[in-house]
């Protein structure tokens, strides 16, 4: 079943700034992403940890140039790009990818923050990102 950006979905995105799409990637696609994330010579080599201030850590991996492996392809496939173009009303490009990895029950809290200050400094005059 293909995901469709309906007027209700678009309204939710515009109101809240995000939407959750369960099943956009198939189980097989998600398995490939998971294998890449857990592979010893894959993303694990580029992962860093940030303390949450409560004695635990969350792991992150961030990249600006999408590679030619499965993790780089996720941001370029039509069902991701096409969905974002419909939500943002135009052509999109890859700014960066951030993968947050948290162990269940033992991983640290993720401290969310507003990124618009540095987006603006980097030439993104409007916070039209997804």
Description:
The chain has about 130 residues and is an alpha+beta fold. The mean pLDDT is about 85. Helices cover about 35% and strands about 10% of the residues. It has helices spanning about 5-15, 25-40, 70-75, 80-90, 115-120, and strands at about 50, 55-65, 95-100. A 3-stranded antiparallel β-sheet has the order 1-2-3, with no helix packed on it.
Number of strands: 3
Q: How would you sum up the major sheet?
A: 3 strands, antiparallel
- Secondary-structure content class: alpha+beta
Percent strand? 5-15%
Main β-sheet, spatial strand arrangement: 1-2-3
Radius of gyration: 16 Å
Distance between the termini: 22 Å
How much helix is in the residues?
A: 25-40%
What is the string of helix and strand elements? HHEEHHEH
Rounded average pLDDT: 85
Number of helices: 5
Basic shape: globular
Compact overview of the structure:
The protein has 130 residues and is an alpha+beta fold. The chain is built from 5 helices and 3 strands; from the N terminus they run H-H-E-E-H-H-E-H.
């Amino acid at each position: 079943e293909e995901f469709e950006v309906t007027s209700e979905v678009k309204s939710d995105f515009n109101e809240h700034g995000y939407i959750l799409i369960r099943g956009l990637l198939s189980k097989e696609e998600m398995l490939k992403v998971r294998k890449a994330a857990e592979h010893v010579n894959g993303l694990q080599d580029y992962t860093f940890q940030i303390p949450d201030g409560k004695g635990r850590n969350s792991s992150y991996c961030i990249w600006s140039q999408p590679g030619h492996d499965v993790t780089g392809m996720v941001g370029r496939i039509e069902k991701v790009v096409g969905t974002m173009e419909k939500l943002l009303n135009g052509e999109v490009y890859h700014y960066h990818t951030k993968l947050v990895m948290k162990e269940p029950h033992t991983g640290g809290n993720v401290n969310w923050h507003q990124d618009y200050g540095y987006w603006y400094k980097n030439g993104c005059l409007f916070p039209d990102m997804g």
